[in-house]
Amino acid sequence: xxxxxxxxxxxxxxxxxxxxxxxxxxxxxxxxxxxxxxxxxxxxxxxxxxxxxxxxxxxxxxxxxxxxxxxxxxxxxxxxxxxxxxxxxxxxxxxxxxxxxxxxxxxxxxxxxxxxxxxxxxxxxxxxxxxxxxxxxxxxxxxxxxxxxxxxxxxxxxxxxxxxxxxxxxxxxxxxxxxxxxxxxxxxxxxxxxxxxxxxxxxxxxxxxxxxxxxxxxxxxxxxxxxxxxxxxxxxxxxxxxxxxxxxxxxxxxxxxxxxxxxxxxxxxxxxxxxxxxxxxxxxxxxxxxxxxxxxxxxxxxxxxxxxxxxxxxxxxxxxxxxxxxxxxxxxxxxxx
Amino acid sequence: xxxxxxxxxxxxxxxxxxxxxxxxxxxxxxxxxxxxxxxxxxxxxxxxxxxxxxxxxxxxxxxxxxxxxxxxxxxxxxxxxxxxxxxxxxxxxxxxxxxxxxxxxxxxxxxxxxxxxxxxxxxxxxxxxxxxxxxxxxxxxxxxxxxxxxxxxxxxxxxxxxxxxxxxxxxxxxxxxxxxxxxxxxxxxxxxxxxxxxxxxxxxxxxxxxxxxxxxxxxxxxxxxxxxxxxxxxxxxxxxxxxxxxxxxxxxxxxxxxxxxxxxxxxxxxxxxxxxxxxxxxxxxxxxxxxxxxxxxxxxxxxxxxxxxxxxxxxxxxxxxxxxxxxxxxxxxxxxxxxxxxxxxxxxxxxxxxxxxxxxxxxxxxxxxxxxxxxxxxxxxxxxxxxxxxxxxxxxxxxxxxxxxxxxxxxxxxxxxxxxxxxxxxxxxxxxxxxxxxxxxxxxxxxxxxxxxxxxxxxxxxxxxxxxxxxxxxxxxxxxxxxxxxxxxxxxxxxxxxxxxxxxx
Lengths: 337, 505
Hints:
Oligomer: heterodimer
Helix content of chain A: 40-55%
Structural class of chain A: alpha/beta
Radius of gyration of chain A: 21 Å
Shape of chain A: globular
Order of helices and strands of chain A: HHEHEHEEEHEEEHEHHHHEHHHEHH
Strand order of the largest sheet of chain A: 2-5-8-1-9
């Protein structure tokens, strides 16, 4: 077994290599790639949101090639049924003529699942996918079928054209580890996109990581130390998002209906550990918690009608929350001065 | 088990620095408390004339008390080593390495990265200087220390001024003149008081007189400076008789008009008056009304008890007089002569008119008439003979027949509240006389008795509540969202129309 320092170094190296490989296909979006990598090492699933044409599907597809994972793509449509995702039992006939049921697995039985436009399917179909995400197994006709680890779902959705869609309920959207926003590329990035996509350019992507290595990295990530006052910092950040709490800011009290759930704290701490390792450190700091606050919390805050009507950005609320937490904090309730 | 002695040595170095800092704080706070007690002692000596600082026990007690208080203060505000490490991590941007390493080292927590973390923390601590570990903090205590030092210096200089000060030479001269002068801070005020008591003139203040010869006889002062010192004092002395005369004149004028001390409260309650006082009051009222007081004034004590005080009685007086007039009582009060009354009466009538105007305001709000309302005038005793029905032929401009609001009665007709303008009944006018001898005409409709309203409260409040609730409901929906909702329903309407057309096609 490698010493921990080498294992940590391996994580750093893997990330650098993945970023370089993806850069052959994807222009820019470094933050998106880092967040997806963090999500992968934490064993979570990501919801990618962006306007059409920003390369959401391309990123996931390229990532699947680099990670050497079994890739499945599910295009969600309004007529998609749960059996189309999970699989179903089919009647088959053997040589003697007797019939029996055989389970035909659906596309969910991959390792890296792209759920494209997840908000177009009905809630029933969404629920089938989300059950697999939470339990990492599928139950069909009373029989459980485990999913092969590492199992990761990358769902995409379009923030515009919400008519005719089925927005994910808050309880289900909370199961996503990260919500990654893909922003519109800058001028230079657009020039790179033109160079890569409008010319004869077909790069070959190499396999950087495979499944067992990812699982080892996930185990190592959970070993990263975190101090009590850093935990207090993360707890304080999540509690501040609840309008009924005394820590809540005025903006939260005015515009937020529901704050982040305990899954938010889990996401903050786990993601902070990966962020620390990627930074070459062996402990989680308060700066790491701040760095992963937005992707971990932006989909867990539910705005009230006033916030939605006034178009309040959740990221802005999270920035205010981060600024409101005192830098000097130790154990819960005690502020170090 | 891995040897983390290097890390422990660095922690020991930090702890030594913390102990020194604690000792430093202890000494500083002790010194501050001692200085504060010394300052208090000086103040007490000046105020209470007690000698504290001459006793050795004072210093020992002050030191012991200061040490005790400082020790308690330091104990309560002591910082833990983890707090110091977090502070170092924050100041030097060490990403919580030191604090995490210390926590895992002391708590014995297990982690794959524990040893790596401890090594990093030990390296970081070894490169820190004592100033980086525990930076000197110019706390407010230091500023307080400086303030106390300065204050004590000032107090000591005041007590024992140096000889180069001008005050010092004069003080020395005074002390030489007084045979009983001792070398203590109390000597100067004692000699000054003794000389002040020797002043012979009772009209002039002694101090200016004292200052004039002293100022002019100071050998060190030139003639110009002595004149400059003497002239303001002379002006002050010359102004004294004028000021005294002015005060006396003001006092005399106040006494002449009998308003030396203006009363604060109104007239006392009748129940609190004795029989003698009531008779005195009756006599005064008789004189005021030129011996034409209505019988109510002559009533027995029980009747007077129904009034609370003089103001209320005077307020009811016109109504009583009117009722007596209608019933043929020859005793009437000529209300046209009211402007000729005294100032004191005008003041009372101002209070009376104020009470009546308040009553009119409350009665004019009632806009509904009740069939079951009792006929009759006021509930004030002798008004029962009044005709309860409103007379439509009453002349509105009749100034002689003034009515107070609330004493009219309705004709029993019940009207909705929004028909005030078209309501039957006279628009009564009431003439109010004030102390300024002005008349106020107040139109009143739908008079009702004071204290009785036939309009249910719910009927009045319901309308206002509905309006308020509608406003509240509207305000809950943001402006932007109203357009959103409207557009949404419009959109649905358009789609339905299109679908219908498609189906029919």
